[in-house]
Design brief:
alpha+beta; Heat Shock Protein 90; 6-stranded antiparallel β-sheet; 3 helices; 6 strands; 22% strand; globular
Length: 147
């Protein structure tokens, strides 16, 4: 079953390889391993700017897993990353051009990989893929604040 991706803010104009707006940031890049760390930094900076500092650690971990999957398993010469802020749901999207859908695995204690989507599944409020499988997204919830 494919869950519907939340409605996100519309792009303004034609974005370049790094488009930044008040409510979202979009970056396209070649699939190199150092990009995962760079996208973690982008996510941390924007969430702090948006007043969502309490989500930085979780969002950076989820970003690392999704971007690393795109780098390792994607098809094509580029990865497209987007972080968007809606009312109460920051959303992370990664498009890698591959129709292969990520899946939650149950790795053994000696397995060196296979935990990425298990982490995403545990940490995200919800996640899914586009119908064609090329885009994986997840939504994080802002914690409730006592008033």
């Amino acid at each position: 079953m494919t869950l519907a991706r939340p409605r996100l803010p519309q792009e303004v104009g034609t974005p370049g390889p790094h488009a930044q707006h008040a409510d979202h940031v979009a970056v396209s890049f070649a699939p190199h391993p150092e990009r995962a760390g760079q996208m973690r930094e982008v996510v941390g900076a924007h969430l702090r700017l948006w007043g969502c500092a309490e989500l930085v650690a979780v969002a950076q971990l989820v970003t690392s897993e999704l971007v690393t999957n795109a780098i390792l398993h994607g098809a094509g010469g580029s990865v497209h990353f987007r972080l968007a802020r809606t009312d109460a749901e920051p959303c992370i999207e990664v498009d890698d051009g591959s129709p292969g859908r990520p899946r939650v695995r149950n790795p053994g204690p000696d397995d060196e990989s296979g935990r990425g989507m298990l982490l995403v599944d545990a940490l995200a409020h919800r996640w899914g893929t586009s119908e064609d499988g090329t885009n994986t997204w997840c939504v994080l919830l802002l914690p409730m604040v006592d008033r």
